[in-house]
Amino acid sequence: MKLSCSEPLVWTCDSCHHSFHEAEWRTAGRLCPACEKNKGIWKCSLCQKAFQQPSLQSSHECSFKNAGKPIAPEADILKRITHTFANHWRPAYFALFPIIFFAGIGVLYWPPLGSRPLATNLAERKLEAGPMTQIMARLGFAKAQYDLGLAYESGSGVSRDSAKALAWYLKAAENNEPNAINKIGYFYENGIVFEKDEKKAVEYYLRAASAGDAIAQHNLGVCFREGIGVQKDPFEAVRWMKTSADQGLAQAQVNLATHYIKGLGVEKNPTKGFLLYKKASENGEPSSFFGLGLCYERGEGVEKNIHEAFKCYAEGARRGDVKSKNALGVCYNLGEGVAPDPKRAFSLFSEAAAQGNPDAEFNLGAMYARGDAVPRNLQLAMSWYGKAASKGHARAIENLQQLRSFLNSSPY
């Protein structure tokens, strides 16, 4: 036998779907207290049976009660939870939603987690200088401050502004964000906003590298190899590059491979160098394909194979590596690993030269001097030789001197 339900009815608005008890409904003038609309329906808070008036509740036989025992325990529990959320928790949930939302986002920027970023650059993390990043940055989250600096530096979602980028990097550095500390070093090294100061750059690279930042470790290795802000030390260069490469930074793997190939600061080991190039290529580093191509072309660390060299250069060029473009142009010009095609070679040299590659500039000068694939033009040859020579290209300097002597001695 079904028993009368003692649960109070609730009024649910047809417009906003909020639910209220009778007292709240009457206090609001028989309107929805939330949206002030007057259309709605009365329902049992347990079984959801509908009524036109709350006074009809006394004749209600609730299907959730039978001799004092639930008919369907699972359904009873589910509907009780639904009822409790709709009438008690939902208002609190909407009131607390901003706090819950910001707390969830904050976890991404929480300093202990921020020391292990999901990625090292903005493109990988797919973040822009949106409102949330700006809010979290202003709240003092170091990772958000770094992201905002990166956005201003790259112009991602905001106008590019190196000064603003630096300002956010400095704030993040105050919170010991390694990526930001490395960026400050980069700004010092390249004279961006700051006056160029290579020693200061090394100080920041060392600070970030000591904190475990792989990019800073690589940058520090390059400084020791090239003597940027410090005395040249190939052994220290190898130490820092190895530390960075062990963390999976592909560019460090490429540079470390070069040290093993040439025996700089480490015992010469072409096989190990080749394997490092291979590992970097598997990590998608474009410049690694040029290194692999050289290994195959010269037989260093692997059996000589000019056809494999051509494939590596072609892949590197496809990925935008400038040295690979020049090397691929040489293959087409000399017919190594592919049928000779001087026009294709000229096109590749032009692409690489436009990116400032001195070898490509020299090769363009040679093609103009000989008239390969283009009409002979000694003035253009001198121009391209001159560009390469200004970057210290030895053969370009020699050819430029010979060409000038020839032109000066020519009666025409």
Q: What does this entry look like structurally?
A:
By secondary structure, the protein is mainly α. Among the domains are: 2-109, no CATH class; 368-412, no CATH class. Helix content is 62%, strand content 6%. The chain is built from 20 helices and 6 strands. The strands form 2 sheets. A 4-stranded antiparallel sheet has the order 3-2-4-5. A hairpin with a 5-residue loop joins strand 2 (9-13) and strand 3. Helix 8 (178-190) runs antiparallel to helix 9 (198-210) and helix 13 runs antiparallel to helix 14. The chain starts with a strand and ends with a helix. Mean pLDDT is 82; it is low at 64-76 and 110-127.
SSE blueprint:
Layout: E1 2-4, E2 9-13, E3 19-21, H1 22-27, E4 40-44, E5 50-51, E6 61-66, H2 73-109, H3 111-114, H4 122-125, H5 131-138, H6 142-154, H7 162-174, H8 178-190, H9 198-210, H10 214-226, H11 234-246, H12 250-262, H13 270-282, H14 287-298, H15 306-318, H16 322-334, H17 342-354, H18 358-370, H19 378-389, H20 394-409
Antiparallel strand pairs: 1-6, 2-3, 2-4, 4-5
